Amino acid sequence: MFWKFDLNTTSHVDKLLDKEDVTLRELLDEDDVLQECKAQNQKLLGFLCRQQCMEELVSLITQDPPLDMEEKVRFKYPNTACELLTCDVPQINDRLGGDETLLNLLYDFLDHEPPLNPLLASFFSKTIGNLIARKTEQVILFLKKKDRFVSLVLQHIGTSALMDLLLRLVSCVEPAGLRQEVLHWLNEEKIIQRLVELIHPSQDEDRQSNASQTLCDIVRLGREQASQLQEAPEPDPLLTVLESQDCVEQLLKNMFDGDQTESCLVSGTQVLLTLLETRRAGTEGLVDSFSQGLEGLCTVSSSILHGIEPRLKDFHQLLLSPPKKKAILTTIGVLEEPLGNARLHGARLMAALLHTNTPSINQELCRLNTMGLLLDLFFKYTWNNFLHFQVELCIAAILSHAAREDRAEASGLEGRVELLPGSGDPEAPQPAASRPENTMVTHLFQKCCLVQRILEAWEANDHAQAAGGMRRGNMGHLTRIANAVVQNLERGPMQTHISEVIRVLPAPTAVRREPCKGAPLLSPGTAPLCSGMEGPEGTPEGHRKGGLGGQGSCRTSRALTGKGLSSAGILAHKPTSGAPRYEVSMGTTAVRISLCCADTTAAVSPSPPIPPTPQCSPQACGGLFSGKVRAPE
């Protein structure tokens, strides 16, 4: 069958407009009035553009509807009026943007005492924003004539819609010349300094939060605009002020001098983090941070760093004693002393500062032992993965310092020659250990005892699980940190320096296991390693035959069995130019052991004696161990 369509049906809006006494509200009650307006129904547009109708539409979006109206329909007319005023029809835009009486009626909304009705504020912001985009010159000229415009917007900055309006002024003005004129006007009004002053403990939280978000968006928008321009862009005056040392110092003064509140500390730190943002390759995991590197890093303004450096002690104190918080109930029990958002943002700032690899900041953080404090928090708050990730990023930044330095040096060379680790080339670059930025690496491994703490935490977790407890919440991040340490120990610019640092660690810093009562520990100098094979020498088949199944002729299997470890624990062998490496099972995890054969064969007494492997030498691996904790696949 076929449906019958009447393609010549007349809209009910047209029928209403044929009435002599039709009212605006009658039209607003029609469901298709907006559709007819967008379709540019000339009869409807002629009615809406009448002075009386335009004034009524503006009044609907700027004046609170009567309180005695039913809540379901109370904002129906204001909502429809806003949609009509912003439907991007040229006749309405011209009528509203070109009539100063209507603009004044719209502007009067800002004269209301705070707080503004958030829904009406959104209607107002949307309407003004549409005019800024469509009737730019007329509206900007009108706003510049209003001496109190910026003051009124800042007075209502606690309402998110007014924050959006301010950002529209910064980002939606075209062409570039007019946009630059608007930026200079806002700069003359000291918009940045006044926003910074709003991030203060004396202000309410909404105003602080929105002021902070506005500053962050101004930074991002300014940098994005500069990067998109083909020609050398004219400096953004707002961004220049915001990146100045004076502005950073004033922000930090508001945060730390006098009473400290979490909202002020968090809001201020968010601005600093945005200023320190760099376009870098993603560092989702620590293990990837060396291979991917941070090639995309762009230089952070030195004025920002100079402003932050004297206040590092305040951030350290914040990590030690944040604003007091009440105990909270979590899924694992009552947390008497929550970490808090302020300390979490402090950790985020430390990670961002370490990524800048600024020697003076690194030295100050070493003096304060801030990394040691962050590790304390890492192991104290075992279920706060937000914190764990930030500590992981801090360690990633420290381990990547030399890698970035080497890439920067190599970028200026026409050719590239890669030297193998341990190469004796007398013309090789200066060793990593002598570079000033590696002070942080030494601090991390020696004073912060990173390796010892990883091993202790891993052993404590194993004991807890063996007793029937659950796996600790920070073990995933701890695994990634341990893998990153081993990866940087095995290869890369930090290899020599990390090896030298670990060499001086105390002997108990080893991967230990007690397979049964009285069995010896697996530790440096006593660990059995394969130094030769009775299978086809130098081939993985010999190890697979003798090691993986626990039966066969591999001497490592017999050596492991002799030390109280099951030979079935050998999971893999990775032949390299340095020490042979094995993965030995430890319960539900795997620990990869890497030792120099020359230092360990004396402690193993199979018959006949095991000679060192030809390719292994103390110079190649330093006789060091490295424990690589790996989650089972």
UniProtKB/TrEMBL annotation:
Region (Disordered): 417-436, 531-559
A molecular-function term among this protein's GO annotations: protein phosphatase regulator activity
Gene Ontology CC, one term: nucleus
One Pfam match: SAPS
Residues that span the membrane, as ranges: none
InterPro entries per UniProt: ARM-like, ARM-type_fold, SAPS
Family indicated by similarity: Belongs to the SAPS family.
Protein name: Serine/threonine-protein phosphatase 6 regulatory subunit 2
Species whose genome carries this gene: Puma concolor
Gene behind this protein: PPP6R2
